[in-house]
Specification:
The complex is a heterotrimer of chains A (about 400), B (about 240) and C (about 260). With about 400 residues, chain A is mostly beta strands. Chain A has a single domain, classed as Single-stranded right-handed beta-helix, Pectin lyase-like (Pectate Lyase C-like), CATH 2.160.20.10. Chain A has 4 helices and 39 strands. The relative contact order of chain A is 0.05. By secondary structure, chain B is α/β, with parallel strands linked by helices. Chain B has one domain: P-loop containing nucleotide triphosphate hydrolases (Rossmann fold), CATH 3.40.50.300. Chain B is built from 8 helices and 10 strands. In chain B, helix 7 packs across helix 8. The mean pLDDT of chain B is about 85. Chain C starts with a helix and ends with a helix. Chain C is mainly alpha-helical and about 260 residues long. The mean pLDDT of chain C is about 85. Chain C contains 12 helices and no strands. Classes of the chains: A mainly beta (about 400), B alpha/beta (about 240), C mainly alpha (about 260). Chains A and C meet through helix 4 of A and helix 3, helix 7, helix 8, helix 9 and helix 10 of C.
Chain lengths: ~400, ~240, ~260
């Protein structure tokens, strides 16, 4: 109460004594011509209104709670000389600016906007072009990054950075951003309780989204298309992946989703379409896969290494070259009640469930694992005959790997 | 009309034509005779370009026939076995051949002569052997060509049709055409042929008029003359 | 030649087998689309049928036609028509009527189903084009067998053997050799082996559309070059053309020298 009272007094005082209370205008012809000057002149809580114009500045440090409000056409050009905006204070908002030409360095990770050890930040409607790192959140919790456009033009992994990077940052909301042409679209390392929603991450060199050592996060409604590989989730726990789209991640080591050492995750309602590998699972346990659509992938699900107690149910497997591929004869995972477009059984009792179990692993997928060139014999009559005989009496494929209740109709 | 020089043809190990020389002038009915396997059909097919000789040359109407096909428009050929595509109707067959030949014809007249009108809409596979042969005759005689080649034309014909066929042949003869016939029916040959060519082992063994042949073999009729010819060669 | 083509085509179009073939495809198209209600699945099933059945039908039809039309051929040979025209005309008549049955038999149900509004139209067109090529190729191969074998039982045997070899045995040998020599780089070998069999070639051409995601999973550089770019499509199409032209050329070559 007392603090509020003082704050009101303070506000009143500034509004009385400052030339334009609570708001500082910056433009090439104004009294305040640079952001640095504006920040220096600004008081806590002020709005810096950045008018249309090109501001050639870098190493701008925001060290007090300010609102940096960019008008359309307001551009900060770093001229490739280093980091551009560095936020070291709580409660800073950056809105509507265009920032371009971040310097590339092999020593430090220069970013367009870096938030360091600060909370309650908000970065929105910002456009980043020709960047090294985009938005870099470093030990900064409780922030919001929404509706930004990050348009990189990276060509090599070694000299490119990530679009949005979270490092030791918790409780961050990353929403509605569009990231393309960087190394990893969105990268999380030691970032817990993060929510990533409705972003589009595309044409990135490495991953659309990349988790390392991050727990209890959720990502939902995102689209990952045409990246080096879609999403990699590694060494993390309790990740919920819901309603995302993974499309057209093509290449010899490419996949829609890679799970490596992941435990207790939920993957549901996603669409995996036309990826070389839909989901590549390596050493992941207790993951629940349900209600996903796997459409026209090379391999819908490829299981490598030891994976235990995973459950696949109510998924649609549609026209994949291979539905499931295993590299061992062991199986501890459950497939139940999925729809398989290749299923040719019948349903005499009309309960919607096929009367004959479906074996989703083809012998051919083993042969291809062993001799990759044999892929060229895909869909040949000879392979169909071999697969058929294997289905009738399994010799090479896990005996218990069956879906005992294959659905007769695609689930909506 | 036809000039064959030094013609050789071998089927596998079987030397069918062995240096055959032959000259046939314009006009006349020439019967090509000889025992089975003597090369009659091969000779005819060589003239028609259906069999390609190993060696030698053939001229039809003073033009070498090697690698050409246009000269065939001056020949009417009646094949030995009258088998036609079964799905086709008689009328369609006539129409097709007329379409291919593109020259004036007397189909109507001949169809009437052989009483084929009731069969015009029938498919060829449903016709009897004799009727097929009549169709074959109509096809052969409907165009006006200077050279006719008839391979066993009498097969399967009833006497009435045979008489009409002979009349047709004579009629063509009277128009100055050259007609080459093979037949096993000596009566027919004796009755109709001006000249006989006797083939043996791929060569011309005898060429001359029927009278000359009879004189040479000292036989009264052609059948015996031919038989004598065959036995003398067998003896020789 | 066009006249011969016309008569052969009409003749075939009137034969019962053309109807059976046409109706078979018509029925297949309708069953696939209207019982399944799924164009993508229909296209995959069709592909399996096309690469197996079309060569078989082409071979059998081709060889049957050759032997059955012997009299027709001989009738034509005595007519003032060059041999090339007779045989090309007959070949095009057979291949044409088969292609006609295939394209219309499958095309009609797809058009009724609303193919033009579906994005599967490219896949489907590719299927039909490949099917047409396979028809032409295998009919030509059958003509070659027939023209070189007077004995129809033998000819028929060779024809069935040819189909069996191309459709099944070849791939078996192919697979075995790939596995036997797996330590060696096999990129070039497998691509060449594919190009040398028209069935495999057509299959690959369709794979490029249907299973590109899986094909791109393989690391080999040559593969990548082949499948990842339009080179694969162009080379495959050219090879299919070669496979059509060469046997047809041989028909004419042999026919010109053959005795009847």
């Amino acid at each position: 109460m007392k603090a509020t009272f003082y704050f009101l007094i303070f506000s009143f005082a500034t509004s009385v004594f400052a030339q334009n209370p609570g708001r500082i205008e910056i433009c090439p012809t104004c009294e305040v011509k640079t952001l640095k000057d504006g920040i220096e002149a600004g008081m806590k809580g002020d709005t810096l209104l950045i008018r249309e114009g090109i501001y050639k500045e870098f190493n701008i440090v925001v060290n007090k709670p300010l609102i940096l409000q960019g008008e359309p056409g307001s551009v900060i050009d770093g001229e490739d000389r280093g980091e551009i905006l560095r936020i070291v204070s709580d409660s800073v908002t950056v809105d509507g600016l265009t920032i371009r030409n971040v310097g590339t360095s092999y020593m430090t990770d220069w970013a367009a906007i870096r938030v360091v050890k600060s909370r309650h930040y908000r970065i929105q409607n910002v456009t980043l072009e020709n960047l090294f790192f985009g938005i870099y959140l470093e030990r900064s919790d409780h922030g919001v990054v929404v509706n930004n456009r990050i348009l990189g033009d990276a060509t090599d992994e070694y000299n490119s950075g990530n679009g949005i990077q979270l490092w030791y940052s918790k409780h961050v909301d990353v929403e509605g951003n569009h990231v393309q042409g960087v190394r990893d679209g969105i990268y999380l390392e030691f970032a817990d309780e993060v929510r990533i929603a409705d972003n589009v991450s595309t044409k990135n060199l490495r991953y659309g989204l990349h988790f390392m050592f991050s727990n209890n996060d959720i990502y939902t409604g995102n689209t990952f298309e045409d990246n080096g590989a879609g999403v990699a989730v590694m060494f993390s726990r309790n990740i919920r992946m819901v309603g995302n789209t993974f499309r057209k991640n093509w290449g010899s080591a490419s996949f829609g989703l890679l799970l490596k050492e992941i435990n207790d995750a939920e993957i549901s309602g996603n669409t995996f379409e036309e990826n070389t590998i839909g989901i590549n699972i390596d050493g992941s346990n207790r993951v629940v896969y349900s209600d996903n659509d796997f459409i026209k992938n090379g391999w819908a699900v490829k299981v490598l290494g030891a994976c235990y107690t995973n459950t696949f149910s109510r998924n649609n497997f549609l026209y994949n070259s291979f539905d499931i591929s295993y590299n061992s004869k062991m199986n501890d995972n459950i497939f139940d009640g999925n729809y398989w477009s290749e299923y040719t059984g019948y349903d005499l009792d009309k309960d919607g469930v096929g009367d004959v179990p479906y074996r989703p692993v083809k012998l051919f997928s083993y042969i291809v694992n062993r001799t990759p060139e044999t892929i060229i014999l895909l869909r040949s009559l000879f392979m169909d005959i071999i697969d058929f005989s294997e289905k009738v009496s399994p010799v090479f494929t896990p005996d218990n790997l069956v879906d005992a209740n294959p659905m007769m109709k695609k689930q909506q | 009309m036809i000039k064959v020089e030094n013609l050789y043809k071998k089927f596998g190990k079987n030397q069918v034509l062995d240096g055959l020389d032959l000259q046939i002038g314009k006009g006349g009915i020439i019967a090509v005779l000889g025992p089975n396997g003597s090369g009659k059909t091969t000779l005819i097919k060589c003239i028609l370009g259906m069999v390609i000789p190993d060696k030698g040359s053939i001229e039809v109407m003073d033009t070498p026939i090697r690698r050409t096909w246009k000269y065939r428009s001056e020949i009417n050929y009646m094949p030995q076995i009258a088998d036609f595509p079964g799905n086709v109707r008689v009328r369609e067959l006539f129409d097709m051949i007329r379409d291919l030949r593109q020259r004036p014809d007397r189909q109507e007249e001949l169809v009437e002569l052989f009483g084929l009108e009731p069969h015009m809409q029938k498919r060829l596979s449903t016709l009897s052997g004799g009727t097929k042969q009549k169709v074959n005759i109509v096809l052969t005689f409907m165009f006006d060509c200077p050279l006719l080649i008839l391979d066993e034309p009498t097969t399967g014909l009833d006497p009435a049709a045979l008489i009409r066929l002979k009349r047709l042949i004579r009629e063509e003869h009277s128009r100055g055409k050259t007609i080459l016939i093979t037949s096993h029916i000596m009566e027919f040959v004796a009755e109709i042929a001006d000249e006989v060519i006797y083939l043996l082992e791929g060569r011309i063994y005898f060429q001359g008029s029927v009278e000359e042949l009879k004189k040479m073999t000292k036989q009264k009729n052609l059948e015996h003359a031919i038989a004598a010819l065959t036995t003398t060669t067998a003896d020789a | 030649m066009l006249k011969i083509l016309k008569y052969s085509f009409y003749d075939l179009m009137r034969s019962r087998w053309s109807y059976v073939y046409f109706l078979f495809y018509l029925l297949l198209g309708f069953v696939l689309l209207f019982l399944n209600n799924d164009v993508s699945k229909a296209v995959i099933t069709l592909m399996n049928i096309i690469i197996v059945l079309v060569p078989l039908i082409g071979t059998i039809f081709g060889i049957m036609y050759c032997y059955n039309s012997k009299e027709f051929t001989e009738l034509l040979l005595a007519q003032p028509i060059p041999r090339r025209s007779i045989f090309l005309g007959q070949y095009l008549g057979v291949a044409g009527s088969l292609t006609f049955s295939l394209v219309f038999g499958l095309g009609i149900p797809f058009v009724i189903y609303g193919l033009f509004k579906s994005n599967a139209i490219f896949d489907f067109t590719l299927l039909l084009v490949t099917g047409a090529f396979l028809t032409m190729i295998f009919t030509a191969l059958a003509f070659n067998i027939a023209i070189s074998n007077e004995n129809r039982i033998k000819g028929f045997g060779y024809a069935v053997l040819l189909w069996l070899f191309m459709a099944v045995i070849y791939d078996g040998l192919f697979l075995i050799s790939l596995i036997l020599f797996e330590e060696y780089p096999l990129d070039n070998f497998s691509l060449v082996a594919t190009l040398l069999n028209p069935v495999d070639l057509s299959r690959t051409l369709i794979l490029l559309k249907l299973d590109i995601s899986a094909l791109l999973g393989y690391t080999g550089a040559v593969f990548k070059q082949f499948f990842g770019t339009n080179a694969g499509l162009v080379i495959s199409a050219l090879m299919l053309l070669m496979w059509t032209v060469l046997p047809v050329w041989r028909i004419v070559f042999v026919a010109k020298r053959k005795d009847f």
